[in-house]
Write a structure and sequence with these properties.
Length: 368
């Protein structure tokens, strides 16, 4: 049985009538930038995330950067705390503001930002914290918010892998003024290209963000009131996102069912450990494997695709050598990057396929 790491075709097939209808509307109006589809999606996505406002942008990276800039983060003397285990785009977004990144270690069980380690690395220059809801899990937002208040820092949540997740039953916007999302195709809610959004409960912030992503222009004019960016969600991508959004809860529920199969079958096995999680929308199902690379080769030989999210912690990447950290400084993140493996997990992945993945893993472990 061939089981890819991700498969978009069933998702597209299931939603084809909806996205074809949206595309027909788009081509009927011939308004391809910041038109009706984007406005409609912004309203719908804000409601789905439990927020009052949504401002779409070109990428999830831009969503993080623009939110930080709106919060006043754009000086070299400022520092932003972020976890070392995340996609490099989190670091790229912070670096693009001009502020300095201060990487913190992760909790070795959940692989999320460790608030205690973050507190130990904070300084008087700490102006923001960017917790990353990695793999669809949710960080300890109470601890992070408490730390931010002590420091006088703003919290910008990176929820690029966590569409629809709640913290203690509440929307993410209940815990910080900005939440950034990505619509990269593999996300729980993905487009067929790049896209991103910032959700907020603050009307004035939403107005500023809307102007900033459109070159800083005064609405309805060709006059740039402030320096901004050209980072706008494409109308065509909005058509797909509006078709996919009504399916998000169903798709997240299916991800959870597959995750339960993996968890039940793999827990307690010697040589492999599912990453511990409590609240998650299961963007990825990640295990820690003692012989990760050999296991990955074994699965590939049986047609099973996997991923590594991520093979190198950010503080050891060449792009971030200026962070002042060296190998050994963030031991939990460094160790995790050598062991983590993402198993197939996506809407319409069959339970039979999940059991096949489990069987091949057990087969590999039996040879240990």
């Amino acid at each position: 049985m061939k089981i890819p790491a991700v498969d978009f075709r069933p998702l597209l097939d299931a939603t084809e009538p909806a996205w074809r209808a949206r595309l027909a509307e788009l081509f009927g109006r011939m308004n391809f930038v910041l038109g009706e589809q984007v406005r409609g999606f912004e309203t719908e996505f804000a409601a789905a995330m439990g927020a009052k406002h949504c401002v779409t942008v070109g990428t999830g990276t831009a969503a993080i950067e623009i939110a930080l800039r709106d919060a006043g983060i754009h000086y070299p003397a400022q520092e932003v705390i972020a976890p070392a285990l995340t996609a490099p785009f989190t670091g790229v977004a912070i670096a693009s503001t001009g502020a300095r990144i201060r990487f913190a270690d992760i909790d070795p069980d959940t692989l999320l930002l460790d608030p205690e380690d973050a507190a130990g690395r904070a300084t008087r220059a700490t102006a923001a914290i960017v917790p990353v809801h990695l793999y669809g899990q949710v960080c300890d937002l109470l601890a992070i918010r408490s730390l931010a208040r002590k420091l006088g820092a703003v919290v910008v949540q990176d929820a690029c892998q966590a569409h629809g997740v709640l913290f203690r039953g509440k929307p993410l916007t209940a815990f910080s003024p900005y939440v950034a999302y990505s619509f990269y195709p593999t996300k729980n809610l993905g487009a067929l290209g790049d896209g991103g959004a910032i959700v907020t409960n603050h009307a004035r912030a939403a107005a500023r963000l809307s102007s900033y992503r459109d070159g800083g222009r005064v609405p309805g004019t060709q006059i740039a009131g402030t320096p901004g960016q050209n980072s706008r969600l494409d109308e065509m991508q909005a058509c797909y996102l509006r078709a996919f959004l009504p399916k998000l809860a169903e798709w997240n529920a299916h991800r959870a069912r597959i995750a339960r199969i993996y968890t039940a079958a793999l827990s307690g096995l010697d040589g492999i450990t599912p990453v511990r999680t409590s609240t998650s929308v299961w963007h990825l199902f990640v295990v820690r494997a003692r012989r990760r690379d050999k296991l990955r080769q074994h699965l590939a030989s049986h047609g099973i695709g996997t991923g590594i999210h991520y093979p190198v912690p950010l503080h050891l990447m060449p792009a971030f050598t200026g962070c002042g950290l060296k190998r050994g400084d963030l031991p939990h993140a460094e160790k995790a990057c050598k062991e983590i493996l993402s198993l197939p997990l996506y809407p319409y992945l069959t339970e039979a396929a999940a059991h096949e993945v489990v069987g091949r893993i057990r087969q590999f472990l039996g040879r240990d």
